[in-house]
## 1
Amino acid sequence: MALYEAAAGLELLREAMLPSAEFNGLEAVVRRFLDSGPSPPIAAACFGVAGPVVDGRCVTTNLPWEVDEKRLAEAIPAQRVRLLNDLEAAAHGVLTLPSRELEPLQAGRARHGTMVLIAAGTGLGEAILAWDGARHRVIPSEGGHADFAPRNDVEIDLLRFLQKEFGHVSYERVLSGPGLYTLYRFLRDTGYAPEPSWLAERIAREDPSAVVSDVGLAGGHPLCTAALDLFASIYGAEAGNLALKALAVGGVFIGGGIAPKLRAKLADGSFLAAFCDKGRYRDLLGSIPVHLVLDPRAPLLGAAHVARDLLETG
């Protein structure tokens, strides 16, 4: 959460991070935030929420919340409230970021055109930034829940492994924080390498995906290294899929909480090899700029800019 003054640009007054699992709804989170410090009257508010927003309402994907613009406007209170999908908010934020917050993975060719954002974090989000000839217009998506499409024998085995556990297998099942540990379990349980006791103990004691990431980046065990390799390759492939579907010649942004932590892995070539591996469209994919979003506050900034626009447009 953040509170901004919009009189002259956007001036940050204060911000806070609150654990959503401790609240029974977004209204309670907002109230806690507003009550925790000085709060002038709220003229407009915008929130990025994880889930599809339809007619100003969202049932969140990973929380038992029903979020509604009208209820929020009454609870705050605020004259104008807008709900956005979280990746929609992030896309608005990416459009405002300075170049220092964007790390190039592939230079490509600079040109006007549609762009896309893909972001693995708690789940997998995707958004399209459609070019209308004068500006980019953000289009939300739930593409992270589309069917996982394996590309080789290992990924076919992964699909079968996950089908037994989940039935339907989406890209989010593998391209997310929980997904990284899922890839580790697949490799471990199908005999890629034995799991040593020290690694099993760390996984039982700590966040499993964080352990896989830390050990894999350090080259500490082949199971973790292979899980990161598989994660980066599938991530690159799906980023390329999204770029093809949107014809995103303007660029591809890799956002979310995971990417900055895996900068070294995403930059080692495996991500881009899968991104460009599109048969006759290899050269097209190779011409698209690809940037890693370094600022984790992009969704917050995007929501703030949309709230300010609400004031200007009425």
## 2
Amino acid sequence: MAGMKTVSAEVGDLDSWFAALLQPATLQVMAVLVACGLLAWTLVWLARRAAATTEPSILFGRRIVDGVLFPLLLLSLVYLARAIVAGWLPLTLFRIAIPTLVALAAIRLGVKVLQVAIGNAPWVRALERTISWVAWLAMVLWVSGLLPIVLEELEQISWQVGSSRLSVRNIIEGGLTAGAVLILTLWISSAIEARLLRSATGGRLSLRKAISNGIRALLMFVGLLVALSAVGIDLTALSVLGGAVGVGIGLGLQRLAANYVSGFVILAERSMRIGDNVRVDNFEGRITDINARYTLIRSLAGRESIVPNEMLITSRVENLSLADSKVWQSTVVSVGYDSDVTLVGRLLTEAALSEARVLRDPAPSAALSAFGADGLEFTLGYWIADPENGQLNLRSLINIKVLAALREHKISIPFPQRVVHYPRVE
């Protein structure tokens, strides 16, 4: 009977809501809500313009109404408007608008934080949809007045675990609290990482990347402890579990743990930095990112290699940019034995100096490197400071200049001439 009376009361509340929505003053309340929306949109636009940012962020998103700042600011303005008009306007629309804005703010916060902190992983989409469904379901229950009834029924579904009593309501509330704490932790760590990595290059970028990874790991650990406490789990009971996890890391997960430790070592000692050109296992390219578990290397051909950090610690790695970014290149040219050696050397050097990417200090040099079977072999060597812009294209341009100069000065370029004798058939 008590349940039937409660449902009847809720139906009566819904009837009174519909009656209140038909009042003439409802239009004035709608005008107040629209004014709050326009004011929130203007304030976010001014804040985005003052920040002078075009990159998507958690607060601003990609558009003005796409971030977390707009629903939070609109929710604050609606709360303020409700306090102002509470004495002379009905509050029915506010009872609908406030839960809707709370659900929208929760969805935007969860989705934007996951997009920035984790990226576009396949399971992130499913988690984002879960957050949306949970937020909108809670909003509908809140607006309809069924939320207390549902929570009361969930409280009745309980069981005894040791000396503790658990219910479905406690588990749901603890899970939501844990999710909120972890999302807040990811938000703080993402903001710190963006702040540290802003306008940092070279060694400072690698060091700041190490600091940001350490801060994120620490915050995630603290957030996990707070979340477990919110669920009601006694943290003192985790000592045995912690010992088991330690044994598992030492045995089954030792390679994974080694990769994580190696990542922090690489970032801390700065033997390899983001932007360096390295050669690992016959793969040469530029380091584009150093994560906790792996390092991403992009070759000049556009291919990307994911290298475990342990491999960078235990194997031989050629860092072409550790001392400086200069790279030496060479090309070999053969000329006839009757050629002027001094003239050929000068023409080769001038061909290299005609390209702006070739460094003047140290200057290019041409040397008679070998007496070939078909002609004199000259090696033209030169230095460049921007190997990330391509090496084969520069070598091709210099070879074209060398060929044109030799032809202009009538210097012969021999080519192999082999006479093959076939047996005579009688």
